[in-house]
Structures are given as C-alpha cells and as structure tokens.
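Annotated sample (chain length 221).
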Amino acid sequence: MSFSQDAWTRTAPIYDAILEHPFNRELAAGTLSTERFRFYMLQDGVYLIAFSRALSVAAARAEATDDMVTFAESAREAVVVERALHESYFRQFGIAPEEAARTEPSPTCLGYNSFLLATAYHAPYEVLVAALLPCFWIYWEVGKHIMAVAASDNPFQAWIDTYADEAFGAAVQGVIAVADRVAAGARETTLAGMHAAFARAAQLEWMFWDSAYRLEGWPVG
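Output written by the structure step:
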C-alpha cells in the first residue's frame, strides 16, 4: 500500500467529519450565512500566505527538479489564482481591501500557519510534503463531493468550481505522487513522522472550517 493510500485510510474519520460539518453541508445547500463565509474567506486569505511560504520552502528543499517545479507552481497558484477567487468574493460580500489587509489570524488559523511553517523549517523534507498534502487533497475531495450535491443557483458556486476543477485535481495528483515517491525511500522514523504530520494537518483542516462556523475569536484582549 502506498503512503497516500495508507494515510487517507488512517484519517478517513476526519474526512467524514469534514463532510458532515455544518459549514460544508450549509455551503453545499447554499444556506451558509454571509457572516460565516466572510469570516472564512478573510481567514483563508491569511492562511494562504503561510501556505504559499511553506510551499516555497518545499520547492527550495526539493532534490528532484520535478518536485521543485511542482511546489513552486503550487506556491504561485496559491497566491495568484486563489487570491483572484478571494477578491471576487470580497467584492460580492462588500469586503474592502483594507479590511482584508488588517485581518489578524484566528487562534486556529495561527495554529495551522505555525504548524506548517515550523514543519517547513525544522522537519525533514518528507514530513513537510506530508504536512502540505491534506490541504490539497481534502479540498479536492470536498470540492468534488459538494459539486455532486450542491443546490442549483448556489451563491458559493465559484468556490465549488475552483476546488472541483480538473486542473486543481491534476495538481493534487502531482503532490500525491511526490509524497508517495519520497515515502518509498524514507526511514521508518521519517515515515512515522509523515503519517503524524498528515494526520495533524487533516485535523487542522476540520478545525479551520469549524472555527469559521463558530466565528472564532481570541478569548481575551
């Protein structure tokens, strides 16, 4: 069994919980509140900066030139393509650029960003690849699932289309291939670290959607 197949099987309950979370069920139904989606988009904008930095570090640390290209292109896509999606929703929901620029990370967003950047700079390259994979893979699977069940005239259709898109799927498959290749030559301790990083990132994906649904803020200050 490949690393990706094994990691996905181990974390299947987390993925199931993501699909069942009210944020994603209401997004599919087109009934998610504007307030919750606005919160999510603003936090996602903060997250994508850290995610693209981690991808850039992965590109710099990669030994295989194909891997360098995979992660460098993904870092660019995270900044350029998804920023365009955010900006279109910012206009739709009346979010001024100044509001987006001054948005501070929620506790969950800060935790996820810190996890990715700490992994990028301090963990083995193989573990970094595993930590990055859930954001790609889970979003693709969620996008496809919601596409199949989404209500017609869904106000969040652009979001659904982005993550169910075949081009995004091809990028996901590329990162899966990198993960499986580096895992095949990894030591047992490194492989264990890869599984731990994949599982933690999957948990943080659930937490990110949950934090948006709860409109999470800092408890003091």
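Annotation: The mean pLDDT is 94.
Annotation: The chain has one domain: 3-213.
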